[in-house]
């Protein structure tokens, strides 16, 4: 069963990664009851053989299952199913997603406004170069590392060391969340556009536009996270209104 060439459905299908295909396969198997709560998943070697994927790909998928609250890894024993459906509030590192989003809304939105008023030419140059590297980057791990650097650089531009310290504190959780969203939500290109809007607002010195751009960015993060954890059902997709106001 080779999952590496899977695609998602919808009006604009996108090619998904092998990891996302493996995760979808295992998640659906758990939700169908093929693996019941308390069951142990097959060994990594067995799953790699069945799904025809590499061990690194499988391990990324297993980590995502744990983040979603479906499984738990027990050292020396394997991976066990602990829930038949994903939790609504996944955990990234030491922090729940809802806690991260709440803090980010209260910190990063005003920080963007301060940064627009206080940024230096050096700050803008650093952010612009970082954004250019992100827009060229195709490796998720490298992109995620630069994503956290981007948000740290915005905090640095606000000229208040406390703001940067807060972002430093949640840096690992932000990286885990970013990797999760990019692997499963295809967020990279959209994030790049949102980051560019933030940089443009800082360059213009517009507090209002910077606040709006960061607000939009965080709202999209939340929307994507929700869509991954609680994907639309077939009924949702067939009854959802189109842009013209009619049902699809």
Automatic annotation (TrEMBL):
InterPro entries for this protein: GntR_C, TF_FadR/GntR_C, Tscrpt_reg_HTH_GntR, WH-like_DNA-bd_sf, WH_DNA-bd_sf
Q: Which PANTHER family match?
A: TRANSCRIPTIONAL REGULATOR, GNTR FAMILY, UXU OPERON TRANSCRIPTIONAL REGULATOR
Q: What SMART domains does this protein map onto?
A: FCD, HTH_GNTR
- Specify the HTH gntR-type domain's residue ranges: 16-84
**Which keywords fit this entry according to its UniProt record?**
DNA-binding, Transcription, Transcription regulation
Q: Does the record carry Transcription as a key word?
A: yes
One Pfam short name: FCD
Q: Mind telling me what this protein is named?
A: FadR family transcriptional regulator
- Gene Ontology MF annotations: DNA binding; DNA-binding transcription factor activity
């Amino acid at each position: 069963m080779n999952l590496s060439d899977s695609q998602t459905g919808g009006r604009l299908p996108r090619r998904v990664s092998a990891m996302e295909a493996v995760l979808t396969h295992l998640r659906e198997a758990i939700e169908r009851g093929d693996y019941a709560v308390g069951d142990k998943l097959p060994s990594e070697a067995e799953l790699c053989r069945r799904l025809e994927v590499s061990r690194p790909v499988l391990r990324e998928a297993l980590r995502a299952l744990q983040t979603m609250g479906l499984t738990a890894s027990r050292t020396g024993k394997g991976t066990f199913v602990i829930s038949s459906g994903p939790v609504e509030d996944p955990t990234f590192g030491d922090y729940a997603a809802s806690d991260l989003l709440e803090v980010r809304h209260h910190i990063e939105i005003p920080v963007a406004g301060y940064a627009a008023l206080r940024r230096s030419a050096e700050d803008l140059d650093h952010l612009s170069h970082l954004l250019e590297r992100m827009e060229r980057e195709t490796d998720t791990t490298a992109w995620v590392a630069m994503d956290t650097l981007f948000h740290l650089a915005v905090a640095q531009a606000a000229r208040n060391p406390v703001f940067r310290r807060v972002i430093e504190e949640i840096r690992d959780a932000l990286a885990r969340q970013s990797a999760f969203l990019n692997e499963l939500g295809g967020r990279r290109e959209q994030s790049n556009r949102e980051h560019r809007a933030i940089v443009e607002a800082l360059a213009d010195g517009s507090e209002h536009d910077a606040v709006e751009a960061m607000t939009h960015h965080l709202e999209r993060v939340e929307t994507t996270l929700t869509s991954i954890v609680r994907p639309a059902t077939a009924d949702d997709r067939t009854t959802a209104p189109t842009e013209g106001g009619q049902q699809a």
